[in-house]
Automatic annotation (TrEMBL):
GO terms for biological process: late endosome to vacuole transport via multivesicular body sorting pathway; vesicle budding from membrane. This is Charged multivesicular body protein 4b. GO terms for cellular component: cytoplasmic side of plasma membrane; ESCRT III complex; multivesicular body. Transmembrane segments: none annotated. Residues 175-221 are annotated as: Disordered. Its main location: other. InterPro entries: Snf7_fam (IPR005024). Gene3D superfamilies: 6.10.250.1710, ESAT-6-like. The keyword Acyltransferase does not apply. Keywords: Endosome. Residues 191-208 have a biased composition (Basic and acidic residues). Pfam families: Snf7.
Amino acid sequence: MSLFGKIFGEKNKKPQVTTQGALQDIASMEDMLIKKQEFISKQIEESIATARKHATTNKRLALKALKEKKVYEKNFEQIEGILNTIHHQKSSLENASLHSEVFGVLTSTSAALKNINKGMDVDKVHDIMEDIAESQEVTNEITQAISNPSGLLNDIDEDELLKELEEMQEEDINEKLLDVGTIPTSSVTDKLPDAPKDKPKAKAKTKEDDDMAELEAWASS
């Protein structure tokens, strides 16, 4: 192909249609057809009004209006069919786009799983798990041996311990008996309160005492 052919060929080459672009085209077409239907609906209403207006006065005009109404109704039905086709195409395109995205995700996920599993071997995994189980078993045995010092207590005589305990109890009882012995007299006398040294002072006279004395003198006179 010549240079000019390549240049003009590039110009005439159609751009690749994307899903988003196709959906936008469908939406634009749908909007245009809906507006077209609205316009035709108004024409149908006008034809009906014209036919009713001339139904009794001008039969020819009335029939012409009814024929136009039929044509408009047929156009309306055709547009309705196109809209149904567009709706179906839009739904199919959206589903296909979704399927494509799902397929892409599944493909990448499958590749990632293969890449991860590539570095692993089932037999090696089983060997590692067995080694872990054996190591865990040894660890449990060591822990049990350390936490159970039964060998340290086997050489202790329990009868000797009981005898020592009885001696301690006997010593404790003797000490308590000694504490309950004769109480010294000095300790008792020290606890008694001292006798008061000063004589009680005479109670000071109050105004009430003077009033009572005056009342008694008045009664005896």
